Amino acid sequence: MPDAGDVTPVGGTDPLRKVADAPIGVFAYVRRDGTPNAVPVTPFVVDGKVVVTSTLAYVAKAAAVRRDPHVALLAGGIQLATTASVAVDRTPRLVQHPHP
After folding, report:
1. Per residue in 56-93, is it b (16+ CB within 10 Å) or e — as a string?
2. CA distance 20 to 48
3. What is the pLDDT of residue 1?
4. What share of the chain is helix, strand, coil (3-state, %, to 5)?
5. Given this model, what pLDDT does residue 30 score?
6. At CA 32, angle to CA 24 and CA 2, rounded to 5?
7. How far is residue 43's CA from residue 23's CA, in Å, rounded to a whole number?
8. How far is CA 5 from CA 26, 48, 50, 68, in A?
9. What is the pLDDT along the chain (100 residues), one digit of tens a residue?
10. According to the model, what pLDDT value does residue 52 have?
11. Residue 33: C-alpha distances to residues 4, 13, 46, 51 (Å)
């Protein structure tokens, strides 16, 4: 997603701060058949870059972005239209759930 240099503050409000503070965003991408699709995501800002995460439930979204990196994100009242890349974190993690 874009770095801080790609987003211009408007009206004195830092758009990256607004994206980071947004509890939910809408991520739009192009499906294999060329139709648009939008899904809810939780946006983050890491090192000046907007990041959205995906789980195995959304592997089609990652494949679509690899195929066509043109995406849009609406979060915190800020709309970003850019190109994106997909990164895979293969670090195993143990998640412990409390027993009932």
Report:
1. eeeeebbebbeeeeebebbbbebebeeebeeeeeeeee
2. 10
3. 45
4. 20, 35, 45
5. 94
6. 45
7. 7
8. 22, 8, 12, 23
9. 444 445 544 455 688 899 999 999 999 999 999 999 998 888 989 888 888 876 666 678 888 999 999 999 999 999 999 999 888 777 777 767 666 6
10. 85
11. 32, 38, 32, 25
Angle at CA 17, nearest 5°, toward 58 and 4?
A: 80
CATH architecture under which domain 4-83 falls: Roll (2.30)
Q: What is the pTM of this model?
A: 0.72
Euclidean distance between CA atoms 89 and 10, whole angstroms: 34
Token pair 């609406």: residue: 74
Report in angstroms the alpha-carbon separations of 75 from 90, 93, 95: 27, 28, 28
The answer to whether residues 43 and 84 touch, using CB atoms and an 8 Å cutoff, is: no
Q: How far is CA 62 from CA 44, 59, 70, 91, in A?
A: 17, 5, 12, 18
Amino acid at site 75: A
pLDDT attached to residue 9: 45
